[in-house]
Amino acid sequence: MEKKISQCSSCYIKYEKKRCIEQEGKGPEFCPTIVKKDIIKKAKLEYNKPEIRHFAQIASIQEGEGYDNRGQEYSSVRPIKSRIVEIIEFAQRMKFTRLGLAFCVGFRHEAKITAKILEKQGFEVVSIVCKVGCDDKENIGIQKNQKINMGDFESMCNPIAQAEILNEAKTDFNIMLGLCVGHDSLFIRYSKAPVTVFAVKDRLLGHNPLAAIYNNDSYYAWLLKDELEKK
């Protein structure tokens, strides 16, 4: 019989009583902390690797220092650092010196400012735009009517080339800025350096994708229909 799959998003246990939060806490029948102990044990062994352990330690330290009023209840802590500040501090703590910035051409203005900030903080920045190579989308089998500019030449996004160019530059840490859904996945897959996300693309919502989630009971209630209308 197949083991129950993890469905943490459907957990009905109160936060302060969750098994993943409290050692004596409780979990539903699908709780991975309870039923996936073999996998968790295997994952735990990975943290014994010095480079992984150090990376995880710095990430946790960075997480903790993102709050003020620590040592009190969670309801009393408050965030004090922006994402760009956390990326800078994390990279400094890891002693990274050369950062990769993989960005969408639609974020070219944001990329220019981001690179300038990172350089001012002492990093060397290797930046690479998504359209690098200027290959037509037809080269990967895209039909003319599937393009944005139907029938005309249209440069394809090239996340694999972005990753490989940063690999050649031997970047210590790569930052993604606005890559398309799917293209971001390919970039992460081919990047040799660890990757973090500065901002994601959401063309409709001004790059704030959670706006659709926050409005799930009003303007975006239609997303909860059984099947989205196909355009």
What does this structure look like?
- The chain is an alpha/beta fold and about 230 residues long.
- The protein has 3 domains: about 45 residues, no CATH class; about 30 residues, no CATH class; about 110 residues, Diphthamide synthesis DPH1/DPH2 domain 1 (Rossmann fold).
- The chain has 8 helices and 6 strands; from the N terminus they run αααββαβαβαβαβα.
- Helix 3 runs antiparallel to helix 4 and helix 6 runs parallel beside helix 7.
State the CATH class of the largest domain. Answer: Alpha Beta
CATH architecture identity of the largest domain: 3-Layer(aba) Sandwich
Helix content class: 25-40%
In the sheet with the most strands, the strands line up as 4-3-5-6
Shape descriptor: globular
The class by helix and strand makeup works out as alpha/beta
Order of helices and strands: HHHEEHEHEHEHEH
Cα separation of the termini: 40 Å
Overall pLDDT: 95
Number of strands: 6
